[in-house]
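All the exercises in this workshop are built on plain-text protein records. There is nothing in a record beyond a sequence line and a structure line. A learned vocabulary of local backbone shapes supplies the integers on the structure line. The question running through the whole workshop is how a given chain folds. Here is such a record, shown just as it appears in the course material:

***
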Amino acid sequence: MIKNRYPRLLGLVPLIGMLLLSGCNMTLLNPKGQVGLDERNLIITATLLMLLVVVPVIVMTFLFAWKYRASNTSATYTPKWNHSTKIEIAVWAVPIMIIIALGYVTYKSTHALDPYKPLESDVKPVTIEVVALDWKWLFIYPEQGIATVNKIVFPAHTPINFRITSDAVMNSFFIPALGGQIYAMAGMQTKLHLIANENAEMDGISANYSGAGFTGMKFKAIATSQEDFDAWVSEVKKSPKQLESAEYAALAKQSQNNPVELYSSVTPNLFQIIVDKYEGMKPGPKVHHEKKEKEKEVAATDMNSHSAAGAEE
């Protein structure tokens, strides 16, 4: 009885797994934006093309194992067989055609879904500057003159131009329901162009491990109507908080599970200031600063003068 009980219990494992997975939200397969929709279609197309090889191989594996089992005495036995032109054509031609099809689809979609490529639209885009901090997201609206932490709001059916950098370690900006992720790196500016096809509240995450507070580095992305967006901007402008230099210095310090914060104003060109502060870390030709070079020349002249005076004594 004990031996028969365990197989029955093992049969419950798939059922338990299905119950646990029922709470998962397949966001990538249920996108809210055109870029995400195109990426979903690409994933499905590539998967189906690859299944043209995978499925027949699995089916034939079981079929051959059954047909040529030891107990099947009627199966054809040809121990000296070593070549079949038909099989050679099938095993080479089919994968090659699939690779060509995948290559074409990948090449075409890579250029069409280039994150740096602005989206075509008759509507004026909204620019949002993104700064990855430890461990929260700062969003700056340069045209509206406001800033937020861990929350962005933008109008649906309007292209959103994201400019992304980091004032900490490398990170990755990702709104799964809208489209692809892109890295945020100190001293550099990356770009991402997205659009929401409908009003929705979406989750944004960090897709790159960045330390102790990584799991709490999440934000809300809300697509709304143009009227509601304008009303939200007006509401943010009433906030008593202002993102000046001192306030930003405090914000940039490490902290976890930060609440949403709204700033009615922001230091002009703060995003570019953050990018430029890492100028000395960039690879490439050395940047010469005339003032610093003159200071070095003066210091060297003074040292030579003191050395000469010491020698005369």
About this structure: The chain has eight helices and 13 strands. The longest strand covers residues 126-133.
